[in-house]
Design brief:
The complex is a heterodimer. By secondary structure, chain A is mainly α. Chain A is globular and about 75 Å long. By secondary structure, chain B is mainly α. In chain B, 70% of the residues lie in helices and 1% in strands. Chain B is built from 13 helices and 2 strands; from the N terminus they run H-E-E-H-H-H-H-H-H-H-H-H-H-H-H. In chain B, strand 1 and strand 2 form a beta hairpin. In chain B, helix 10 runs antiparallel to helix 13. The two termini of chain B are 40 Å apart. The chains are: A mainly alpha, B mainly alpha. At the A-B interface, helix 1, helix 6, helix 11, helix 12 and helix 13 of A face helix 1, helix 3, helix 4, helix 5 and helix 6 of B. Chain A: One of its GO terms (molecular function) is ATP binding. Chain A: InterPro entries: MetI-like, MetI-like_sf.
C-alpha cells in the first residue's frame, strides 16, 4: 500500500513536471536563442546554454528598428487605457450598484448584451465610424472605447460593490457625505483588490493588443511594439537571433508586471473566469 | 451592430459609397463564387473540433493532478502554467515559428534524436492546423486555473461519504468529481469554443493563411476581405455568418447541457 502510493505520487509529479517543462521550454528557448550568434543557433545538435552570451543581439535588434519609439507609443496607449478603464469602469459600476436612476436596469441589460457580440462583427462598422470622423491613424480608436468603460469591467466591479454593506454608505450619509465622498472615501478603498485585478488585465490587454493597432495605425512612427515586432519579422525573417532578442524585449515588461502582480492575476481569473 | 448588418447588404469597397445590393453578398458566399468561403469554414471547424476537446482534456488533467493533496508547490506550478497566457500573441507566434521550423526547430531535433521521421509542421497542408492546435495548448493556463478553482470547491464531505461507502479512486472520480465539475466544464466549453472560432493573430503572423489556404481561419479571412481587399460590405456578410454560427453552436450546447450539466442548487 505504502509502496504503491509512493509510486503513484511519483507518477503524478512526473506528469506535472512534463507539463511545466512544456510551458517553460519555449520561453527558455527564446531567451537562449536571443543570446546566441546566428552560427551557434544553427549548430546541431542544439546547445542549451549560449557560450559566450551574445548581448550584442539586443543592441542590434533594438537599433535596427526604432523599438524605443514603439515602446513609448505602447506605453502611452497602455497608460491611457489603464486610467480610462479604472476611472470610467469604477464610476459606471458605482452608479449601477449604488445610485438609482430611471432606466438603470434597462441600461444594465444592454451593457451585458453587448458582451456577447464577437469583435469581428463590430470591428468593420467601428472602423468605418472612426474613418468618417477622420481619426484613423491616431490613438483615439484604441483609447477612447476604454474610456467609455468596458462592459466586463463594469459588471465585475458592480458585483464587487454590491457586496460592500450598505450600512457603511448610510452611516456616511448621516454624517453629511454626498455620493462623491462615499465613492472615494468608502467604496474605492474597500474594493482595491478588484481594482487591481481590472488594472492588471487592462494593462495586459492593451500591451498585447495586436489587431487594434494593426487595423487603425498605418504610419510607422505611431506603431506599437506588437506591430514593430511583426514588421521586424518581415525585415529580418532569417535572422533568428535578432528576432528572438526583439521578442524577448517585447515580452519582458509583461513578465515583470506578471511577477509583481501574480497573486492578483490568479485571483482575478478564478474570480471572473476571464481569459487573459 | 445594426450598421454592420446593413453593411452586409451593400457593395461597399471603401472607395465608393455604400450601394444596396440585397442578399448578393450572401449568395456570392453560398453559391461558391467566393472560393475561399467554404474552405475557411472547413479550416475553422477543423481547428475548433481539434482544439476544444483537446484543450479541455489537457487542462482538466493538469488541474486534477495539481489538486492532489500531496502536491507541494501548487502556487509555483500555477504560476508556471499561467505564464504563457501573458505572452503577447505576436511574440508567442514568433517563438513557435522557430520551434516548428523544419530544419532547425526544436521539435524536429527532438524527433530526430528519438529516431522518428521529422514533420513539416506549418509548411504542410496536413499538419498546419494540428500544429497551431498544439501551440494553443501552450496558452491554456487560465482554463487550468478555472478548473483548479472548481476542483477546490468540491465539498470534501462528499468524498468522505464515498469512502465510507467503499468507493475507490476511479468511482470517486466518475461519480463525484466529474458531475460536480460539469458546470465549470460547460463554462470552459462555451468560452473555449467562442475563442477558438476567433483565432486571428496566429494565422496572420505564422502562416498568412497558407500553405495553399490550409490555415485560412475565418477571422483572418474577414480581416483579409475588409482591410487588405477593402471589401467592407462583403466582409460584414462574412462576419455575420460567423456570429450566427457561434450563436447556433452556443445554443446547441445550452440545449444539450440540461442532460449532462449538474447544478447543485437543483438537487
Amino acid at each position: 500500500m505504502q509502496r504503491s502510493r509512493r509510486i503513484s505520487q511519483i507518477t503524478v509529479y512526473f506528469f506535472l513536471l512534463i507539463g511545466a517543462a512544456f510551458c517553460l521550454l519555449p520561453l527558455f528557448w527564446l531567451i537562449r536563442s536571443s543570446l546566441m550568434t546566428s552560427l551557434q543557433i544553427f549548430e546541431m545538435p542544439p546547445k542549451w546554454i549560449p557560450a559566450p552570451f551574445q548581448f550584442q543581439n539586443y543592441v542590434e535588434a533594438l537599433t535596427s528598428i526604432d523599438f524605443f519609439r514603439f515602446f513609448r507609443n505602447t506605453l502611452t496607449i497602455t497608460v491611457s487605457c489603464l486610467a480610462g478603464a479604472l476611472i470610467s469602469s469604477s464610476l459606471g459600476a458605482y452608479s449601477y450598484a449604488r445610485l438609482s436612476w430611471p432606466g438603470r436596469n434597462i441600461f444594465f441589460s444592454l451593457l451585458l448584451a453587448s458582451m456577447m457580440l464577437p469583435s469581428a462583427v463590430t470591428l468593420i462598422p467601428t472602423f468605418i465610424g472612426w474613418r468618417l470622423v477622420d481619426l484613423i491613424n491616431t490613438y483615439f480608436p484604441l483609447i477612447m472605447p476604454v474610456w467609455f468603460g468596458s462592459a466586463f469591467d463594469i459588471f465585475l466591479l458592480r458585483q464587487f460593490y454590491s457586496s460592500i454593506p450598505k450600512d457603511l454608505d448610510e452611516a456616511a450619509y448621516v454624517d453629511g457625505a454626498g455620493p462623491w465622498t462615499i465613492f472615494y472615501r468608502i467604496i474605492i478603498p474597500l474594493s482595491k483588490p478588484a481594482l487591481i485585478v481590472i488594472g492588471l488585465f487592462s494593462f495586459m490587454n492593451s500591451w498585447n493588443d495586436f489587431m487594434g493597432p494593426l487595423v487603425y495605425l498605418n504610419e510607422e512612427s505611431k506603431f506599437t511594439m506588437a506591430l514593430g515586432l511583426q514588421m521586424f519579422q518581415s525585415l529580418h525573417s532569417a535572422q533568428w537571433h535578432l528576432l528572438m532578442a526583439a521578442s524577448t524585449f517585447v515580452i519582458m515588461p509583461v513578465i515583470i508586471v506578471f511577477f509583481i502582480g501574480q497573486r492578483y492575476f490568479i485571483e482575478g481569473i478564478t474570480l471572473t473566469g476571464m481569459k487573459g | 451592430m445594426l450598421s454592420s448588418l446593413l453593411l452586409s447588404f451593400t457593395d461597399y469597397r471603401i472607395v465608393n459609397t455604400p450601394k444596396f445590393i440585397g442578399f448578393d453578398n450572401y449568395t456570392r458566399l453560398f453559391d461558391g463564387t467566393d472560393q475561399y468561403f467554404y474552405n475557411s469554414l472547413a479550416v475553422t471547424f477543423k481547428y475548433v473540433i481539434l482544439r476544444v476537446p483537446l484543450g479541455l482534456m489537457f487542462s482538466f488533467i493538469v488541474a486534477f493532478l495539481l489538486n492532489m493533496e500531496f502536491i507541494r508547490g501548487k502556487s509555483i506550478f500555477r504560476t508556471i502554467f499561467y505564464l504563457p497566457v501573458i505572452v503577447p500573441a505576436v511574440a508567442s507566434s514568433m517563438i513557435w515559428i522557430w520551434l516548428f521550423s523544419p530544419d532547425l526547430g526544436l521539435f524536429n531535433s527532438f524527433l530526430e534524436a528519438l529516431g522518428l521521421p521529422t514533420l513539416n509542421w506549418l509548411y504542410s497542408e496536413e499538419t498546419v492546423v494540428p500544429s497551431i492546435v498544439l501551440m494553443s495548448l501552450w496558452g491554456m493556463g487560465s482554463t487550468i486555473i478555472i478548473f483548479l478553482a472548481g476542483l477546490q470547491g468540491v465539498p470534501r464531505s462528499l468524498y468522505e461519504a464515498a469512502i465510507v461507502d467503499g468507493a475507490g479512486a476511479m468511482r470517486k472520480f466518475l461519480h463525484i468529481t466529474i458531475p460536480m465539475m460539469t458546470p465549470i466544464i460547460f463554462f470552459n466549453l462555451i468560452m473555449g469554443s467562442i475563442g477558438a472560432f476567433q483565432v486571428f493573430t496566429e494565422a496572420l503572423i505564422m502562416t498568412q493563411g497558407g500553405p495553399n489556404n490550409a490555415s485560412l481561419f475565418y477571422n483572418y479571412y474577414i480581416y483579409r476581405e475588409a482591410f487588405l481587399f477593402g471589401e467592407m460590405g462583403h466582409a460584414s456578410a462574412i462576419a455575420w455568418i460567423l456570429f450566427i454560427i457561434i450563436l447556433i453552436v452556443t445554443a446547441i450546447f445550452f440545449r444539450t447541457s440540461k442532460s449532462w450539466v449538474f447544478y447543485e442548487s437543483e438537487v
